[in-house]
Design a protein that fits this description.
Blueprint (H helix, E strand, L loop, with lengths): L1 E10 L8 E6 L7 H11 L3 E6 L3 H7 L1 E6 L4 E2 L3 H15 L3 E6 L2 E7 L7 E5 L4 E6 L1 H5 L15 E5 L3 E6 L3 H5 L5 H9 L5 E6 L9 E7 L2 E3 L3 H13 L9 E5 L7 E10 L2 E21 L1
Parallel strand pairs: 2-3, 4-6, 11-12, 13-15
Antiparallel strand pairs: 1-2, 1-17, 3-4, 4-5, 6-7, 7-8, 8-17, 9-10, 10-11, 12-13, 13-14, 15-16, 16-17
Amino acid sequence: MRRLDYTLYDVFTDRPLEGNQLAVFTDARELREPEFQRLAREMNLSETTFVLPRDPAVERERGVKVRIFTVAEELDFAGHPTLGTAAALRARCGTAQVELDLRAGKIPVEFDDAQGPCFGTMRQRDPEFGRVHRREDIAGFTNLRVEDLRDDVPIQTVSTGMAFAVVPVATLAALQGLRVDTAGAAAHASRTDAKFFFFVSTETVDPKARIHARMIFYNGEDPATGSASGCCAAWLVKHGLAASEERVLIEQGIECGRPSRLFVSAERRVDTVTNVRVGGSAVEVARGVLTLP
């Protein structure tokens, strides 16, 4: 029997049983290719990651190779799996910085416990700004009215490794009552440059937060979406809703009972947005061993 160690983390929270859940398989070299996806379905979390250790010299140059899977597909990049996997690797090596080699490229994560328990910040790829979406199209696959969507800032696709359409909702109440036809959302996304939709409001539950966010997709509601939060940081700075390098707190996951806190920033240099950073805490909640023939 093959024995595979894994660790469960709650990410973008400093409290167990909140935030976004993640399973990290710390040495997946013995897995056969179809088993990655099958194990992600077995864990049945938003994402599961698989660490593929390499020669230390290679890891120093390229980073630690990691693959990310949802229950349905492999992803080039995702935020909470990046932070949670980096936390698991840091627990082993004790270094203040961990670099991951993802399909989207090398992503560094820096840890600073002075900001909170196991608090890490990742620098994401520079954003790419894409299509502007019509409010009528977004309303068509949700229960929102067109007037529930802001018209003073655009619904726009942004990617820092994963493409999200950032959808500004006018009120917190409208966002809290959001329902999404996921099949309709996927159909619309297939005709555009977006993969998922990140709904945001500048009205919040916590007065310390600047953004209330929700992301609903084929696997339900995501408690914390680090990749989308990086896109949101770039969108906020580009459209003047946040200052360059201002640290913004995003609250997410409240409606699904797993509150999460994500700290984001981005830098504006003339007409370019760069230095996108997403941070938060990660908490180890369990360890286990999975056996396979």
